[in-house]
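#structure-requests
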Amino acid sequence: MMSEASTVLYFVRHAESRYVEGQERERGLTEQGHQDAGTVASLLHGEQIQLFYSSPYRRAVDTIQILADWSGGMVVTEEDLRERQLSSSDVRHDNFREAKQRLYRDPTYAYPGGESGEQARSRAVAVIDRVLDKHRGQKVVIGTHGDIMTLILQHYDSSYGYEFWESTSMPDIYKLEFNGTHKLVQVTRLWE
């Protein structure tokens, strides 16, 4: 049972999207991704959510759009909820996990042209704080990405890191309950 001042955020990590070099913003969902977006909508439809924020990246918006349409809501994009910029020239795929591990081990480290964990986390958490202030006591969906979602969670609970990031799926759903002082009181995974 939610207390009067508690706010619930539903972090929805985007569904499957085919990686295309240089298409970070524009790449949409695969056929499987579109099916999974429908499942996300079905899972969350009964939650009576009216508010939808998202990374501006198409795959994040597309994953929550069906739910927003069913709920009569509108997806508001927030630039600072975008995925963490890994580097100016994408880290080679054979080194991808190693690159991620290094970034989680050292939150101040950034690859050339990329963002450190601290940089990405602080810009995204600023948006989450605004959402928590503006929509106190309400339920809000956040269309997000694996890395930035992990960094936001880490802000509230330092046990979230590389292992959590690696354990997430596409899509994925985490229900976060905050009390009136923005303290995270519970995290529940809703995607099976």
